[in-house]
Write a structure and sequence with these properties.
The complex is a heterodimer of chains A (about 100) and B (about 150).
Chain A lengths: L2 H4 L10 E6 L4 E10 L2 E10 L8 H11 L5 E6 L4 E6 L11
Antiparallel strand pairs in A: 1-2, 1-5, 2-3, 3-4
Chain B lengths: L4 H12 L4 E2 L3 H8 L5 E7 L3 H14 L4 E2 L2 E6 L4 H9 L10 E6 L2 E6 L9 H15 L5 E2 L3
Parallel strand pairs in B: 1-4, 2-4
Antiparallel strand pairs in B: 2-5, 3-7, 5-6
The chains are: A alpha+beta (about 100), B alpha/beta (about 150).
Chain lengths: ~100, ~150
């Protein structure tokens, strides 16, 4: 069911849980709201920081897929220079070269 | 904060008219899920337009399948908050999201459809996922019969 029907005027990914890989190496998984001049706005966000994470990103994302999103932050704005590609969680696959 | 009940009622009825029993209190949840016998579906209903607007029709499609769980229940997240929280305690390993669907067999979660698996997908696709789970986990125990 397209978000267009219920939220006219919003982007296609509005309301969809996405993966955003940052230039810093951190990864965010949350519900996409919008991209504006301020950056990418996500709601109910789980955050993976390779410097502190107990699990490698691939395993961490697999756990999110199976057990759901464990929210670290209710709302995050990623500056545009930090935010990398935005991928639906259900479509996510780890880049072959790593990140 | 719960929405106006008048607005929510059609969303409740869209599920209950399928023969799914709504659980609105902690006691009702415990009475239904406590025994943990057989196959049980719990539909966590939600006001959210994007996801729930697809999840409810998907449930309707899935329940037309010949094979289905023995017990069908629903709770309404954000409305009947105590009942929803109690229901989630029966699948506490899974993070809360709504809408979502838990399929249990003898009290153990055997399949879970999170909100992120519903978002942006059509009812037919979501229903296929549920039907596959019904066939896999409810095949020999389910109530069989045409609707």
């Amino acid at each position: 069911m397209s978000g267009h029907i219920f939220h006219p005027g919003h982007e296609e990914l509005h309301g969809v849980t996405v993966v955003v890989v940052g230039a810093s190496g951190r990864t965010w998984v949350g519900r996409y709201q919008e991209t504006s001049e301020r950056g990418v706005l996500l709601h109910d966000v789980a955050i993976h920081d390779p410097a502190t994470a107990a699990l490698p990103r691939e395993t961490w994302i697999e756990r999110l897929r199976k057990f759901g999103i464990r929210v670290d932050e209710p709302r995050v704005i990623l500056p545009r220079k930090e935010a990398g590609p935005i991928t639906r969680l259900t479509d996510w696959s780890e880049p072959l070269s790593g990140a | 904060m719960p929405y106006n009940e008048l607005m929510v009622r059609p969303m409740r009825e869209e599920v209950t008219r399928l023969g799914v029993q709504e659980l609105r209190t902690v006691a009702e949840v415990d009475a239904a899920l406590g025994p943990g016998e057989g196959t049980t579906l719990v539909f966590v209903n939600s006001v959210c337009g994007c996801a729930a607007g697809a999840a409810r029709p998907a449930l309707s499609l899935a329940l037309r399948h010949l094979v289905k769980p023995q017990h069908l229940y629903t709770v309404f997240a954000g409305q009947d908050t105590d009942a929803a929280a109690r229901a989630r305690s029966y699948f506490a390993e899974y993070q809360p999201s709504s809408p979502s669907v838990a399929l249990l067999s003898d009290g153990e979660v055997v399949h879970f459809v999170h909100r992120h698996m519903i978002e942006g997908r059509g009812p037919e696709t979501i229903a296929q996922d549920l039907v596959a789970a019904f066939d896999k986990f409810c095949g020999t125990e389910a109530v069989r019969g045409e609707r």
